Amino acid sequence: MSPNDLTVDPAQPNAPAAEARVDFPDNRVLVDVCGEFDRNLATIETALEVQIIRRGNAIVVVGEIGSRDRTLAILNALYDRRAAGRDVEAGDVDRELRMGGPDADTGKRRIAEGDQLEMSVGSKFEIKTRKKLVEPRTDAQKAYVQSLFENELAFGIGPAGTGKTYLAVAVGVSMFISGHVDKIILSRPAVEAGERLGFLPGALEDKVDPYMQPLYDALNDFLPAKQLVKLREEKVIEIAPLAFMRGRTLSNAYVVLDEAQNATTMQMKMFLTRLGKGSRMVITGDRTQIDLPRGVPSGLADAERLLNHIPKISFNYFTSKDVVRHPLVAAIIEAYEADAPQNQRS
Could you tell me which residues are beta bridge partners of residue 283? Predict the structure, then answer.
């Protein structure tokens, strides 16, 4: 029986309408879908308020009809993913819970070498890098990635953990691999997050490396270590503080400015005007985490105010619902957002 054929459990002819069973062809694949100690099933049960019973290669779902049908659709999508040879991780389960449904696989497409991004907003797609395929997990992330491929200048604005920088770097690596750009330049302001670290020892690179570490982490996810070292030595991939961008014209490059809320207005203007022929530029930031001295306006806020009416400049916004790090991160962000109006009144 196909995993997409849903039947009421024949062993229970009088079972309620909200109980359904699906048989999967390969029990080994199903075991991987369920996860260690069935933890993936437990996650789905908690999120959708259903009961999931595994009997060999069959799954029985008990719950309200809408939740039951959505559970079966999610399990089918995860099974198809694993049957295609791809891992099923906690993040994949979370993605299906956010985006999954009967039509979740409609319009699926891979962004590969030479491809143009042509898909509906409701479709699902992947970003190809040397080490992994990266999939946006929420509608806002999908729209963001689409705008990165379609626009020469794009902004990603929202709270921590929403994948703004990670997806931007993934798209940059994909464009570099496919030959759309000749180099990748990643930058961020060297601003301390609310504490003074003092003078750091070592050469200039040693001093700025701690500020750039999140960008290194993203690149390490997408490129083999030896290749990344070689590309950095050849200056094909550059990671540098924002101050180092002054006086440059960045042509045929994919350029990312991370933590842009900590750039001043003059720094933001300087950076934006570095855009050269054949280049793409992405600006990411979180308006709630400004570490500039009191009274110094954020260049990100000014750019948003001044540039939002210009065609071919894309502004993409994220909320706590787009957080993909850990469920607690979303809850923490929502708690702080709810408290913000009270702090403003006091």
Answer: 155, 257
